[in-house]
């Protein structure tokens, strides 16, 4: 595990070299409220949510993610088409200059697919976020029960 | 030459019109118009579940699947909070069904474990693909399998409404994805036999 992380860090360093002149994307991004959704033990997949803040003057793209708890980690979004929620991979998640992007239920998220073991409440999941310039950032996201956040709702649609 | 190009264009246009006429199905998929609801019998881990036996109660129906990583858990968590806020008497007047749109992977036991994680009173049900298609059609719910490249798993796109059936069995309305427990509670209480009685006396 340590060796794996070291290798990851090494790769990230190598990849980050060409961009050494300006600040690496990963250094401009701060991550708040990282959370992995606690799922029933039989679940094969879960999602990680967080808020990405971009402190720099340029737009930054998150282009990949990885986690030791899952065989595959993908960037996903949901498209609501007439009440049908369609989950789809996205090539990148944009974080505007001096802006923030929310990864939240029903929207953008990091999808952790084929979990290596059932995740327990409170467990800390390491997630490596990879940015367009090749830099990367490792975060720790605790596994937690996700409760619905207040969201605007249109009035209940009539059945007819 | 120009006339030949025109002819080709006209032919293309004609083909498009014919194609649309053949394949265009108003109201599907995604916007099944005017669903009326209706009764169905599906299987749970604890035996058959017949919605016609639930007259006199408010029935909440959600179509989803257990491999669903985000949308179903979000809705189930909201439903769970909503049900917890009802008084015990009110809880006895509400039944909640989670209908699988993925019968190939969702066994009754798997469904029970999944929905039980959120709320033990929610009943997970499944059936043959035909039975599920019939139930979904009655409520205007749509779903379709979507394969993920480089992955043996697949996701199922599905309607994310929670359907609300009144105690007399008619489809009273549907709650959108993202409805808060407070909003759900308001809609449910409008139809609860006990609150209706209170309102009229």
User: Order of strands across the biggest sheet of chain B?
Assistant: 5-4-3-8-9
In the CATH classification, which architecture of chain B applies?
3-Layer(aba) Sandwich
Secondary-structure content class of chain A: mainly beta
Count the domains of chain A: 1
Architecture overview:
The complex is a heterodimer of chains A (about 160) and B (about 200). With about 160 residues, chain A is mainly beta. Chain A is about 10% helix and about 50% strand. Chain A has two helices and eleven strands, in the order ααβββββββββββ. In chain A, strands 1, 2, 3, 4, 5, 6, 7, 8, 9 and 10 form a ten-stranded mixed beta sheet that branches. The model of chain A is unreliable at about 150-155 (pLDDT under 50). Chain B has helices spanning about 1-25, 70-85, 90, 110-120, 130-140, 180-190, 195-200; strands spanning about 40-45, 45-50, 60-65, 95-100, 120-125, 145, 155-160, 160-165, 170-175. In chain B, the strands form three sheets. Chain B has a five-stranded mixed beta sheet with strand order 5-4-3-8-9, with helices on both faces. Chain B has a two-stranded antiparallel sheet with strand order 1-2. The longest helix of chain B is centred in the first third of the chain and has 22 residues, at about 1-25. With about 200 residues, chain B is an alpha/beta fold. In chain B, helix 2 packs across helix 6. The N and C termini of chain B lie far apart (about 85 Å). In chain B, helix 4 (about 110-120) links the parallel strand 4 and strand 5 (about 120-125). Chain B has one domain (about 35-200): Glutaredoxin. Chains A and B meet through strand 2, strand 4, strand 5, strand 8 and strand 11 of A and helix 2, helix 4, strand 7, strand 9 and helix 6 of B. Strand 11 (about 155-160) of chain A pairs antiparallel with strand 9 of chain B.
């Amino acid at each position: 595990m340590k060796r794996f992380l070291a290798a990851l860090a090494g790769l990230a360093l190598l990849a980050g070299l060409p961009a050494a002149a300006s600040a690496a994307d990963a250094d401009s991004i701060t991550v708040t409220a990282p959370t992995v959704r606690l799922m029933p033990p039989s679940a094969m997949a879960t999602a990680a949510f967080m808020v990405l803040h971009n402190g720099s003057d340029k737009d930054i793209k998150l282009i990949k993610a990885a986690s030791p708890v899952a065989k595959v980690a993908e960037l996903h979004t949901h498209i609501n088409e007439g009440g049908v929620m369609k989950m789809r991979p996205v090539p990148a998640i944009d974080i505007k200059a001096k802006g923030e992007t929310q990864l939240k239920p029903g929207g953008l998220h990091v999808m952790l697919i084929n979990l290596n073991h059932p995740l327990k409440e409170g467990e800390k999941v390491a997630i490596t976020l990879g940015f367009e310039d090749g830099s990367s950032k490792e975060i720790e996201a605790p596994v937690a029960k996700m409760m619905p956040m207040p969201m605007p709702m249109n009035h209940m649609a009539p059945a007819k | 030459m120009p006339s030949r190009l025109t002819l080709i264009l006209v032919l293309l246009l004609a083909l498009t019109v014919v194609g649309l006429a053949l394949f265009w199905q108003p109201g599907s998929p995604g916007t099944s118009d005017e669903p009326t609801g209706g009764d169905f019998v599906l299987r749970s881990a604890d035996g058959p579940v017949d919605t016609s036996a639930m007259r006199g109660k408010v029935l909440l129906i959600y179509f989803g699947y257990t491999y669903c990583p985000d949308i179903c858990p979000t809705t189930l968590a909201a439903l769970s909070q909503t049900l917890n806020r009802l008084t015990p008497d009110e809880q006895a007047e509400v039944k909640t069904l989670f209908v699988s749109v993925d019968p190939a992977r969702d066994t009754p036991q798997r469904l029970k474990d999944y929905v039980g994680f959120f709320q033990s009173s929610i009943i997970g049900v499944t059936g043959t693909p035909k039975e599920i298609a019939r139930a979904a059609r009655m409520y205007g719910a749509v779903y379709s399998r979507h394969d993920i490249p480089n992955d043996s798993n697949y996701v199922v796109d599905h309607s994310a409404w929670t359907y609300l059936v009144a105690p007399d069995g008619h489809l009273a309305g549907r709650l959108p994805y993202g409805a808060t427990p407070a909003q759900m509670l308001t809609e449910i209480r409008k139809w609860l036999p006990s609150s209706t009685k209170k309102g009229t006396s």
